[in-house]
Amino acid sequence: MNLQVQIDEGNNGSVVHLSGEIDVYTAPKLKDALLPLTKQKGTLLEVDLTHVNYMDSTGLGVFINALKSSNEHECKFKLINLQDRVYRLFQITGLHEIMDLNSTIRGVDE
Amino acid sequence: MESFDFIEMKFPAKPEYVGVIRLSISGVANRIGFTYEDIEDLKISVSEAVTNVVNHAYEENENGEVTIGFGIYENRLEVMVADHGGSFDLKEVKAKIGPYDSEESIENLREGGFGLFLINTLMDKVEINNSSGVIVLMTKYLENQEVGFNDDHVSTK
Prior knowledge:
The structure holds 2 protein chains of 2 kinds.
Chain A: E1 3-9, E2 13-22, H1 27-38, E3 44-55, H2 57-72, E4 76-80, H3 84-93
Chain B: E1 5-12, H1 18-32, H2 36-57, E2 65-72, E3 76-83, H3 90-96, H4 115-122, E4 125-129, E5 135-141
Helix pairs in contact in B: 1-2, 2-4
């Protein structure tokens, strides 16, 4: 019931690897990690959700916030490797239409 | 009268206990025989309801509690989430629920308005009692209990 955040910074941007659960308890930690990275103009910020096995609306909130900030600062924000349960949450809320979610989602029929 | 088992649990209304509440609902739902998918739906729904209590009702009272009730019936599970403190404005909550409309500009996108919408989507029945504090009552039916085997039933899940 925790969330591990590991940031790999490269030349053109960063990949944030998350592992664990995103809920009201872990969301503030995630927000603090992501927001500074969304303010780096001209970079690509990817969030790897391979090992996120639980997420609820608090997680959606953090990612919406990160997307807004990225757009303001001309940074490209992308979520990758979503588990199908997590992807479903974006689908139900219609957010898959506006968020850049990578197309190689495991176990999801598009 | 329909017989059922009832379990009541009380937790501090703090973010760090939401995961523990999820484990509880997961155990109870597994005991009844819900599918993996349904258990995941229940975990999200209960977390959303508890998160509402943690965020709204106890903004000014750190010692608040959240009460969870599980009504275990032969064909369904009823989950009650009650705060015993201040209540949030139902009209305001209702105004904030709904799917994201892609016509809306991204600046207007709600960051916290998806909770009740998700509960409504993932559970079979949701009722809210706002008379003394806020009580959210959520019902999920066991699959194949309501609809006969030969009925032309198409699952939306």
